[in-house]
């Protein structure tokens, strides 16, 4: 791969998308790529992808088709970390009657 060519987006890639990837990402989002939609015509350097948007705990929260510039995407090595388990709530005896 030459220095001036961006990395190719592939199925399973985890990406952090910010304004560098497209103006639509005013708030950064993390996605897991399902597939690159290469059959769609785009401007040079841009790409359509089919992806799952990931929530803060790494679970898929929405399926989206996104238009972005791969050169501005940040590749992640692992999904967002899961929050630590909460301590159980202590409850008193149940009142009946």
Structural commentary:
With 97 residues, the chain is mainly β. Helix content is 0%, strand content 33%. It has a 5-stranded antiparallel beta sheet, with no helix packed on it. It is elongated and about 70 Å long. It starts with 13 loop residues before the first strand and ends in a 21-residue tail after the last strand. 12% of the residues are buried. The model has no long low-confidence stretch (mean pLDDT 87).
In summary, what is this structure?
This protein has 97 residues and is mainly beta.
SSE order, one letter for each helix or strand = EEEEE
* Helical content band: under 10%
The profile of the biggest β sheet is: 5 strands, antiparallel
Figure out the total of helices: 0
Quaternary arrangement of the chains shown?
A: single chain
| Percent of residues in beta strands | 25-35%
Report the end-to-end length measured between terminal Cα atoms: 74 Å
**Which runs of at least 5 residues are low in confidence (pLDDT < 50)?**
none
Physical arrangement of strands within the biggest beta sheet: 4-3-2-1-5
- Principal-axis shape: elongated
